[in-house]
Each structure stands twice: as structure tokens, then as C-alpha cells.
Design goal:
The complex is a heterodimer of chains A (319) and B (284).
Chain A: E1 9-11, H1 12-26, E2 30-34, H2 44-49, E3 54-56, H3 61-72, E4 77-83, H4 92-101, E5 107-111, H5 129-134, E6 140-142, H6 147-159, E7 164-167, E8 172-174, E9 189-192, E10 197-201, H7 205-219, E11 224-228, E12 231-233, H8 237-244, E13 249-257, H9 262-271, E14 278-284, H10 294-300, H11 305-317
Parallel strand pairs in A: 2-3, 2-4, 4-5, 5-7, 6-7, 10-11, 10-13, 13-14
Antiparallel strand pairs in A: 1-8, 6-12, 9-11
Chain B: H1 10-31, H2 37-41, H3 43-53, E1 68-71, H4 77-86, H5 126-139, E2 146-151, H6 158-169, E3 175-181, E4 184-185, E5 188-189, H7 190-193, H8 199-205, E6 209-214, H9 218-230, E7 236-241, H10 264-283
Parallel strand pairs in B: 1-2, 2-3, 3-7, 6-7
Antiparallel strand pairs in B: 4-5
Helix pairs in contact in B: 1-3, 1-4, 1-10, 3-4, 3-9, 5-6
The chains are: A alpha/beta (319), B alpha/beta (284).
Bound molecules: thiamine diphosphate and magnesium ion (MG).
């Protein structure tokens, strides 16, 4: 893709809704559970097309999670969807016991993660879901960076047995992959070449990182490498080391609290290596968000292209 | 050794219930921890479930066409384990390893135990899991039924009522909910910790069919199960009035036995009392 082309904007929640419909056509075991957010989570088209495979539990996320487990015990493949703050936010214990401890074949989708609930404010901004989900055994966590990757991640979630959590965004963000890109759970991808600093990111913020890196690389050629990590759990440290290719200066990027989130995960993993790494974490810095447009919020909390660029440039200066 | 399913004779079932009580006492004493009151108080219900009611096969615990029983109040799993072991789901010697390291029998249910349908222990979830399974079986047009037991203290959890609403909404007449109404919970009597009455009205107002029974009467348990099968378009709740610690005079109706095991001396006395009750059945 030429760097000057303006990229298309699409949301990962839309990718989920579309892919779910495609998969449901071939797989009659898929059933969908809603907790009164069918439209926003994009499961409504499924509900309309397959009313006999759709269950509306009402505003009851705890019930939704345990009901999903029970459905899976009859051979169904239950899909549950809500905003990240409510699922897994509200029903974490049900996800822990009914789904993960039971190793139930439930596919969990959270939309509106990160800052993408924007004007709804802090109550609706899911900035802690990676933290609480990655602590759980048995579950796999996927966090796609754009529309096409989300399509592939959703498909991959159904190709494996057992609980999967997929982190999706409401925001229309830049499409940075193509339908041809391959996707494998646990695999990372180098999105931009560079040799001095690595931006390691997850989710739609990777597009901001990519833009920041590409601008810097224009002035300082071959400086910033961008590594996209759509799989948070199980984390593939071998692939990360391979993708880093010896780079020791790292900036992690995520639309999530930096504590106990993706950046922390990278720190934990690399701290067990023999080499020493210098890591900075970009993300929400131990505060709650507020109302505003998605762009305004990303700017204010320094999770936009400029914010990331500044951190990169500081790191270059401190060489 | 796995016991054969005995004839559906109430006296025989009553004897099995007492045998299960003895097994419970022994394994709790050995484990030096665990929940005695609820386990003893539901022995008749578990006996009817596992020796008369449920369509299950101990040799094929995961057979697709089986009835499902979910224990939501997982802390009373000693009685579930006793029933499963007596019915031949696993070797009875496992009962001596309850709550021990590397054991098949966890302190709260784990699906690794043959016959255990769900993890339970975080109260309030089992009824939702059962509703999910009942929904799934209905979607698949299966004739099998789903049973769930919850306790009474557990009904304090809001999730219970979320599940109750959902079951009525989808007219789950393939679901039977048994409530161990023993009037105790951890902190004391339910009426002090959190009054539940009028429980029957509450559940009826959620559009369930409700039965109230003596939870120690084999006959009433059996007939309530068959009544539930005849109700259409509504799920059935059976409020089973039970005596916590039933069968052991010094444990009955005493909330302090909710979560403690008997000492060796207490276990000996308890077993003696239960054996006497069993003997009385022979004499009658
Ligand atoms: C969600 C949850 N909160 C708290 C507990 C701790 N707990 C275990 S048993 C219990 C009392 C429940 O009452 P009940 O089941 O009626 O007790 P029983 O009749 O068996 O003595 C509590 C609060 C728990 N297991 N799960
Ligand atoms: Mg009780």
C-alpha cells in the first residue's frame, strides 16, 4: 500500500457481524445470545435471519455467560456479545467459573473496547478487559488491528475448541491489512520495517502506531519497526523475539490501561529473557476516561499518532 | 463395586439414602473439612434423582442422550459424589480422597469427575447453566430433561432471578428446579440473613409452576418429578422443605453445621444414629 493513500475506515465490530452471518450459514451449531445490545454489537442481522438460534436474555450479562456455558454442553457453539465493560466487566466470575473452569466452547465478543464508547464516557470505556481476561486459564484472547484482521480472528475463534475472547472496537479505524493477509492464532506480523526501535501493539491502535512509524521513517529511514500482535493469549514469545530481530528498544501500544494490560504482558515476557530490554508503555495511564469524540480522547490521552510519535522521538533523542 | 439400579421400591431407596449419608459422614471426617448440613439434608433427593429419576448411564457419563443434573450449590458436593459413586460412576475408594491433593473429588465440583455436569461453588450460576442446557436441548428437539438444584441462601444472588425470568420466557417445560429449602445459610437462619418469604409467590410470579414438598419423603419427591414432566409450557420449581443435618440428632437444624465436618467421635455417633434409622426400615 502506498504510504500517501488515504486508508479506508471500517470498524472491527462490523467485521464481526458480517463474519458471524457467513459462518452461521455453514455451521448450524452456532447460536447467539444477546443481553439487550443486539444492534450495537452487530448480532442483530443474525437475530433477524436465524430467530430460532437467537436468545435474548435481557440486561443480564451474568446470566448470559452461564447460559452460554450450559448451551455449549448440548453441542451448540454459543456466541455472546456485549460491551467490554459489561462482558467481561460485569460477569467476570461467571466467565471464570461457568465458561473457563468448565472449558466450555463459548465464543465471547466484546465491542466498544478501549476508548471507542467515546461520548458515553468513562463508565462505558473498556480499558481493563485485557487485564481481567488474561489472568484466566483456558481462554484464548484475540485483539485484531483492523476490519480484515477482525474477520479472520472471528473465523479463527470458531476453528478451535474452547473459550475464546475477541476484543473489538466500535470506532471506524484505518484498514491496514488486506483480505489476503494470512492469520494464525499466536502469529505476529511486521507491518513496517525498521531497525532501531520496535513498536509492539495490539488492536486498532496499531494503525496509529503504523502512521507514526511511517512518518518518522521518512525522515529517519529504517528506524521504527511495527509489530502487530493480534493474539494476546496464548502469547507467543518465540515469535515476538523473532519479530524483534535483536531490537532492544521497545514501545508497546494499546487502547487499555498500561497496568496489567498488553504492555505489562510484554514486560513480563521479556523480563524472563537473558537480554535487557528498554520498554516504554503507551496506553491509559492509570486514570479513567471521559466524554469526547474518539479522536479527541485519543489525542488527550496520548494514544494517537502524535502521542506515539512523541514517545518514539524521545527514545531516538535519548540514544 | 458399582451397584445395580435397585427396584423402584421406596424402602430400598430410603435405605440407599441412609447409606449415602454414611458415606458423606465418612468422607467429610476423613477430609477434615467440607459441608455437612446440606449434604445430609438432601440425601433423599439425590437418591431419587440418581436411583430412580435420571436417564443416565454410569458407563457412558457423556452420552449425548442423557438427562442432566446440575448442582449449583456446589458446596454440598459430598452428597453428589456419594450418589455418583454408589451408582458406579467411579470407584467408591475415591470417596476417601475427597479434598485431598491430586484427587478426582474436588472441594467443589469439577467436570473432570465422571458424572459431574458443571463446576459449581460460586453460588448463583448453576441455574443459568441449567437454563442454557435446557434451551439447547429444546433447540435440538431432545426428549431429555434438565434438573438443577440450588440452595435457599443462594437465591440471594440476583443471577438466580435473571435465570428464572429467562426460563419462563422460553417456556422451558423440560427444566425442573429443586430448591433445598433448609432455612439455613452461612451466617445463620435465612430469615435473619436475608428473608426469602414468600418464596413460592416470588417464583410463581416469575411464571413458574411451583410445588412444595417434604424433601425427605421419597414418595413426594418422586411424584413431584413426575408432576413436573406433565406440566407444559412452563418450567417447574420444587421447593423441597428439608432439615439440614437430617438423620443426626445433634446436627439437625443447626446452622453451625453448614460448613464444618464431624470429628472422629462425632462421626462415630452420627453413623450409629443413621444405622439405627436404616435398621428401623427393615423392621417396619
Ligand atoms: C458467589 C458466592 N458468594 C459467597 C459464597 C460463600 N458461601 C458458600 S455457602 C454460602 C451460604 C449459602 O447458603 P446455603 O447454600 O443455603 O447453605 P446451606 O443450606 O447449604 O448450609 C455462602 C455465602 C459462595 N460460595 N459463592
Ligand atoms: Mg440453605
Amino acid at each position: 500500500m502506498s504510504k500517501s493513500t488515504k486508508r479506508e475506515l471500517r470498524s472491527t465490530r462490523d467485521a464481526f457481524g458480517e463474519t458471524l452471518l457467513d459462518l452461521a450459514k455453514e455451521n448450524s451449531k452456532i447460536v447467539v445470545i444477546s443481553a439487550d445490545l443486539a444492534e450495537s454489537t452487530r448480532i442483530l442481522p443474525f437475530a433477524k435471519k436465524y430467530p430460532e438460534r437467537f436468545i435474548e436474555v435481557g440486561v443480564a450479562e451474568q446470566n448470559m455467560a452461564s447460559v452460554a456455558a450450559g448451551l455449549s454442553f448440548t453441542g451448540k457453539i454459543p456466541v455472546m456479545a456485549s460491551f467490554g465493560v459489561f462482558s467481561p466487566g460485569r460477569n467476570w466470575d461467571q466467565i471464570r467459573v461457568s465458561i473457563c473452569y468448565n472449558d466450555a466452547n463459548v465464543k465471547m465478543f466484546a465491542t466498544h473496547t478501549g476508548l471507542s464508547a467515546d461520548r458515553d464516557g468513562a463508565t462505558h470505556q473498556s480499558l481493563e478487559d485485557i487485564a481481567i481476561m488474561r489472568a484466566l486459564p483456558n481462554v484464548k484472547i484475540l485483539s485484531p488491528c483492523d476490519f480484515w484482521e477482525a474477520k479472520r480472528a472471528v473465523k479463527a475463534a470458531f476453528e478451535i475448541e474452547g473459550p475464546v475472547y475477541v476484543r473489538l472496537s466500535r470506532a471506524k479505524t484505518e484498514v491496514i491489512t488486506t483480505p489476503q493477509h494470512s492469520f494464525k492464532i499466536g502469529k505476529m506480523r511486521i507491518m513496517e520495517k525498521g531497525e532501531k526501535i520496535a513498536l509492539v501493539g495490539t488492536g486498532t491502535i496499531v494503525s496509529d502506531g503504523l502512521n507514526a512509524a511511517q512518518e518518522i521513517n521518512k525522515k529517519h529511514p529504517n528506524t521504527v519497526r511495527v509489530i502487530n500482535c493480534p493474539t494476546i493469549k496464548p502469547f507467543n514469545i518465540k515469535d515476538l523475539l523473532k519479530s524483534l530481530g535483536g531490537i532492544r528498544k521497545i514501545i508497546t501500544i494499546e487502547e487499555h490501561q498500561i497496568d496489567a494490560g498488553f504492555g505489562s504482558l510484554i514486560c513480563e515476557m521479556l523480563s524472563e529473557e537473558r537480554e535487557k530490554y528498554l520498554i516504554s508503555r503507551v496506553g491509559m495511564n492509570n486514570e479513567f476516561g471521559e466524554s469526547g469524540s474518539f479522536e479527541e480522547l485519543k489525542k488527550k490521552y496520548r494514544m494517537d499518532k502524535e502521542g506515539i510519535k512523541k514517545i518514539i522521538l524521545d527514545k531516538i533523542k535519548n540514544e | 463395586m458399582a451397584k445395580k439400579l435397585p427396584a423402584d421400591n421406596n424402602d430400598r431407596l430410603q435405605k440407599i439414602a441412609h447409606d449415602l449419608r454414611i458415606t458423606v459422614i465418612k468422607s467429610l471426617e476423613k477430609a477434615k473439612s467440607g459441608h455437612t448440613a446440606g449434604s445430609l439434608g438432601t440425601a433423599e433427593i439425590f437418591t431419587v434423582l440418581y436411583f430412580s429419576e435420571l436417564k443416565i448411564d454410569p458407563k457412558k457419563p457423556e452420552k449425548t442422550s442423557r438427562d442432566r443434573f446440575f448442582l449449583s450449590n456446589g458446596h454440598i458436593c459430598p452428597i453428589l459424589y456419594a450418589a455418583l459413586s454408589e451408582r458406579g460412576f467411579f470407584d467408591p475408594s475415591e470417596m476417601n480422597r475427597f479434598r485431598q491433593i491430586n484427587s478426582l473429588l474436588q472441594g467443589h465440583p469439577d467436570r473432570k469427575t465422571p458424572g459431574v455436569e458443571t463446576a459449581g461453588g460460586s453460588l448463583g450460576q448453576g441455574i443459568s447453566v441449567a437454563v442454557g442446557t435446557a434451551l439447547g436441548l429444546k433447540m435440538s428437539k431432545s426428549d431429555n430433561r434438565t434438573y438443577v438444584m440450588t440452595s435457599d441462601g443462594e437465591l440471594n444472588e440476583g443471577q438466580t432471578w435473571e435465570a428464572a425470568m429467562l426460563a419462563a420466557k422460553y417456556k422451558l417445560d423440560n427444566l425442573t428446579w429443586i430448591i433445598d429449602r433448609n432455612l439455613i445459610q452461612i451466617g445463620g437462619f435465612t430469615k435473619q440473613v436475608m428473608p426469602l418469604e414468600n418464596l413460592r409467590d416470588k417464583i410463581e410470579s416469575f411464571n413458574w409452576y411451583v410445588l412444595e414438598i417434604d424433601g425427605h419423603s421419597i414418595d413426594e419427591i418422586k411424584s413431584s418429578f413426575s408432576m413436573a414432566k406433565r406440566i407444559s409450557k412452563r418450567p417447574t420449581a420444587i421447593i423441597a422443605h428439608t432439615v439440614p443435618g437430617k438423620g443426626v440428632s445433634f446436627m439437625e437444624d443447626d446452622p453451625s453445621w453448614h460448613g464444618k465436618p464431624p470429628s472422629p467421635k462425632e462421626a462415630e455417633k452420627a453413623i450409629e444414629e443413621i444405622k439405627k434409622l436404616k435398621k428401623k426400615i427393615n423392621e417396619d
